[in-house]
Amino acid sequence: MQVTIAGSGGWGTALAILLHENGHDVTLWSHFETESKQLAETHQNPYLPGVTLPEGLHYSADPACAQGREMVVFATPSFAVRTTAHAFAPYLAETPLLVSVTKGIEEGTGYRMSELVSQETGRTVVALSGPSHAEEVSRGIPTGVVVACPERELAERVQNAFMCSRFRVYTSPDTAGIELGAALKNVIALCAGVCDGMGYGDNTKALLMTRGLAEVARLGMALGAHRETFAGLAGVGDLIVTCTSMHSRNRRAGILIGQGVPVQEAMKQVGAVVEGYYAAQSAWELAQRKNVDMPITEAAYAVLYEGRDPREALNSLMLRDRTSEAEDAAWAR
Ligand SMILES: NC(=O)C1=CN([C@@H]2O[C@H](COP(=O)(O)OP(=O)(O)OC[C@H]3O[C@@H](n4cnc5c(N)ncnc54)[C@H](O)[C@@H]3O)[C@@H](O)[C@H]2O)C=CC1
Ligand SMILES: O=C(CO)COP(=O)(O)O
Fold first, then answer.
1. Does residue 328 register a pLDDT over 90?
2. By the number of CB atoms within 10 A of the CB, which of 4, 240, 303, 321 ranks highest?
3. Could you identify the atom of ligand 1 that is nearest to the CA of residue 30?
4. How far does residue 50's CA lie from ligand 2's centre (Å)?
5. Environment class of residue 89 by beta-carbon count within 10 Å: exposed (0-12), middle (13-18) or buried (19+)?
6. DSSP secondary structure string, 61-123?
7. SS3 content of the chain, % helix, strand, coil (to 5)
């Protein structure tokens, strides 16, 4: 298959290596000409230290490189997905498969990433997500993900393109669930990092992850996602990897914030996109709009955007009104 990957950060590059190994003819597109030249000349990507890009990958900074390709994968940070899809749209008429692998929610509108690409291109878009740090995928470490699309045939074609012995791909019809799980868990991972940075323990993190998943699923379902998706790879699977891995940019940013580093400085020190920072604002807005209770996300928003002290935020989460883990209906059983 002829493939273009639109976005040459860590994730786009890791997927370019994978698809090249799968026998596809891959062009890696960069937003910046200088970045594209550097990749072509050095075969190294600073976002993936120690990984050498294989011979045979092509590099471009021109969206026209998508012309006539069979699959285009959008892999930029979320803030750049709409503009990138807009730039690529004139070249996609003969491309049957469009894929989004970005994890975020558009600020202000609340749209998911596949929705942005769809709006800009007028086409159905497959979403790919799951516990999949680029640092590990680029080194061939076995990984599992989900591809979602209401059109099963499109999902299965994308599954076939990515699947191999080190990259297991499941399909799902629940694009909303897959994308919301991906975007919202980043907020919880950032909070898990904050707890680590403040020196709290494994109990605290397990509490945060479990109750975090509950509120992620609550908002997801209010936005049309299926409950069971949050028990899958793009839900609890991705939550586990992001809250526990030192590869996670969200967790690393959180650790710094928990240690007292100012938010903007923490993101600068991480040096790659911290999607949970942006998702906290979008999730907070969506929760208000849909009237969904999301106490952890609300606390994250207050810490990240209003300067609230993280210790004080955690303390007030612990002392919220007492409640039940079960829904009211369960007590009647
Ligand atoms: N890194 C990872 O392990 C994984 C990342 N993701 C998701 O993939 C998305 C991209 O993540 P990464 O590749 O890690 O990000 P990154 O932080 O490595 O991305 C940096 C890239 O963004 C590009 N960029 C900057 N401004 C741009 C613009 N205006 N237009 C287009 N591109 C621009 C830069 O050229 C650079 O190549 C995020 O949503 C992330 O959550 C998903 C799974 C794994
Ligand atoms: O989504 C990811 C892994 O599945 C990447 O997480 P970070 O953005 O926190 O590094």
1. no
2. 4
3. 35
4. 19
5. middle
6. S-GGGGTT-SEEEE-S-GGGHHHHHHHHGGG-TT--EEEE----B-TTT--BHHHHHHHHHSS
7. 55, 15, 30
Buried b (16+ CB within 10 A) or exposed e, 215-233: bbbbbbbebebbeebbebb
Catalytic residue among 185, 205, 268, 290: 185
ipTM of the complex: 0.99
Ligand 2 contacts (CB < 6 A) are 103, 131-133, 186, 189, 238, 241-242, 247-250, 275
Task: Give the pLDDT confidence of 154-165 residue by residue, as tens digits.
Answer: 999 999 999 999
pTM (2 decimals)?
0.98
Q: Which of 132, 133, 188 to mutate to test the pocket of ligand 2 (most atoms within 8 A of CB)?
A: 133
Q: CATH topology for 2-173?
A: Rossmann fold (3.40.50)
Q: CA-to-CA distance for 233 and 145, rounded, in angstroms?
A: 6
Architecture of domain 176-324: Orthogonal Bundle (1.10)
Listed by start position, the domains of the chain span 2-173, 176-324
Sorted by sequence, the CB contacts under 8 Å of residue 82 that are 6+ apart come out as 106, 116, 119, 120
Q: What residue's CA is closest to ligand 1, atom 28?
A: 80
Reading the block at residue 50, the tokens are 């120690």
